[in-house]
Amino acid sequence: MMARRLLAGFVVALAVSAVVVSVSSAQNRAHRAGGTVSVLYAGSLVDVMEQQIGPAFSKATGFGYQGFGAGSKAVASQIKGKLRKGDVFISAAPAVNKTLMGASNGNWVTWYGAFATSPLVIGYSPSSRFAAAFKTKRWWNVLQSPGLLLGRTDPAIDPKGQLTVQFLHRVEVAKKLPGLSQRIIGDSENTSQIFPEETLVGRMEAGQLDAGFFYSIEAKAAKLPTVNPPMGTHYSARYTITILNNAANPAGALAFVKYLLGTQGTAVLKQDGFQFVKGQIGGDKSAVPTDVKPLLAG
Fold it and tell me: What is the dihedral of CA 192, 197, 199, 204, to 10 degrees?
């Protein structure tokens, strides 16, 4: 009896294994047939790209997906320096695309289109000892609290870091608070506050930071409470997308762009709090793929 049970169990295990191998093989064949699409994107999109869009795109189209996120300027520098290859580039600022346009910049980008925005906010840890203060006091006073650990990105390589500095200078003038930005973020040598964009949310969740400057979509994805300064809406990520010239998988790149800007992709983005924009195409508009133009046009 025991021998028969063991044999039966072994047969079932083999059957299950065969099904798993069959499904896996089918997926691998599909990926090999269409190839893998390499998407290089702004680090603020890590969650949406790796947990949502990337897997859903692969499931819907059969293409493989490989993503890499970092500060938009840093990604552009790696593309320009031929340190990283990709098929699609998503930036958090239109101007970054221009650093990849023209013969002097390697002709990596010919066109780009803006598709969504997300305003700058101050996110804070609900477990921080300063959490209650953010609910009752003015945010700029809380950020000057002794011992508060603040996180932001490098303005030299990330648009969000640059917007953070610009925003604080604007508040300083508007609220007549001379020296405010210096008291909150110090000078350019204050590297104790600067972290890679793709790790900033994780550091907050791990309790390594009390507060930080984020785009609203990042804070929402991480379920971080936020302070949303009215002027913050004027300092927003403006996400753009393009297919890189000399992409190794142009067909896959086109499929990805169409998926992201199509019904399925925008449903995910809407759920995540992105604010959509259209009619903002930069570079050579005639070079935009025919299938993509209607998705970007106003």
Answer: 70
Q: Output the pLDDT for position 294.
A: 96
Cα distances from 274 to residues 90, 103, 239, 270, 290, in angstroms, run 14, 34, 10, 5, 25
| Distance from the first to the final alpha carbon of the chain | 72
Burial class of 232 by CB neighbour count within 10 A (0 to 12, 13 to 18, 19+): buried
Q: What does the pLDDT look like over 66-117, one tens digit per residue?
A: 999 999 999 999 999 999 999 999 999 999 999 999 999 999 999 999 999 9
Partners of residue 123 on adjacent β-strands: 212, 226
Residue 290, Cβ density class (10 Å: 0-12 exposed, 13-18 middle, ≥19 buried): exposed
Task: Please give the C-alpha separations between residue 162 and each of 72, 165, 203, 214, 278, in angstroms, as whole numbers.
Answer: 11, 5, 20, 12, 24
CATH superfamily for 119-235 is Periplasmic binding protein-like II (3.40.190.10)
Of 98, 96, 92, the closest CA to residue 120 belongs to 92
Supply the pLDDT for residue 26: 41
d(C-alpha 287, C-alpha 256), whole Å: 17
Domain with CATH 3.40.190.10 in the chain: 37-117+237-296, 119-235
Angle at CA of residue 79, ends 107 and 295, nearest 5°: 70
Backbone angles phi, psi at 294, to 5 degrees: -65, -25
Q: What is the DSSP letter of 84?
A: S
66 with 49: CB under 8 angstroms?
no
Classified by CATH at the fold level, domain 37-117+237-296 comes out as: D-Maltodextrin-Binding Protein; domain 2 (3.40.190)
User: How many C-beta atoms lie closer than 10 Å to residue 17's C-beta?
Assistant: 10
Q: Can you give the pTM of this predicted structure? A: 0.86
